[in-house]
């Protein structure tokens, strides 16, 4: 009888130990899933946002969105072009979550800039882009203006090939056009030519049309090494020359939100401003971190040294 009681007690003891061990294992597995598995599957914000506007910014934003969504599988980011004017008007109307622009919202009469928050994501250089066989890689500022205003009509007039010049423009509302007109043409409007809604189309037409010349951000020369970026007054169109202010045609890449960003908007903009993107993706895509600039501009276009 005593032996039977001992056996019963031992059985009960081992049964309790087994139950406790099982509970402990489940708890550890649950904690492990919360710490590791949870961060892999559901890290960051979920949902979707629409980002659009400046076509000069589009390659950068599209590349960043691709990397961001690869790390955050529950997030969707729809990246669109349309031009800076579209970016500002659509974010102001609430149709875009983030509106991208090459120029300050304050410069647009139909935009209430006080309702928008400016996030200067990067700086981009811009210059005239010529067909590979024009025979010219540098123009004086006067020659540049005379070509785009229609006074010079053949590349032979500036030491190039005997080829008629075909102008390729962006439409009104394009930030690339506004920047090029202000800082490349000293405020003069270009003559009529082919007008294309996107920088991608400008790049393609300049590449395919003998004698063609348009204007593009430096990022597009990274994507097509055949088209020729034209220097101005002997200054090469390089990032270093933009940073020092020697090359005059450049713009901030603004991302605007209605009020302070929240949720996925904020997380994506924080990602765009992260060291990973600023020091790696931006240079790879042909953009310049704003923090590396030695000069700055205000909304009126006034330039000053950064102290």
Task: Provide a brief overview of the structure.
The protein has 307 residues and is of the alpha/beta class.
Keyword list:
single chain, 307 residues, D-Maltodextrin-Binding Protein, domain 2, disordered N terminus
3D architecture notes:
Residues 1-42 have low confidence and may be disordered. The chain has 2 domains: 47-124 and 251-305, Periplasmic binding protein-like II (D-Maltodextrin-Binding Protein, domain 2), CATH 3.40.190.10; 125-243, 3-Layer(aba) Sandwich (D-Maltodextrin-Binding Protein, domain 2), CATH 3.40.190.10. It contains 10 helices and 13 strands. It has 307 residues and is an alpha/beta fold.
User: What is the overall pLDDT average?
Assistant: 87
Shape: globular
Q: Supply the CATH class of the largest domain.
A: Alpha Beta
Annotated CATH topology of the largest domain? D-Maltodextrin-Binding Protein, domain 2
The main pleated sheet reads as:
9 strands, mixed
CATH superfamily of the largest domain: Periplasmic binding protein-like II
Distance between the termini: 94 Å
Fraction of residues in helices?
A: 40-55%
Low-pLDDT stretches are 1-42
From the 3D coordinates, which CATH architecture of the largest domain would you assign?
3-Layer(aba) Sandwich
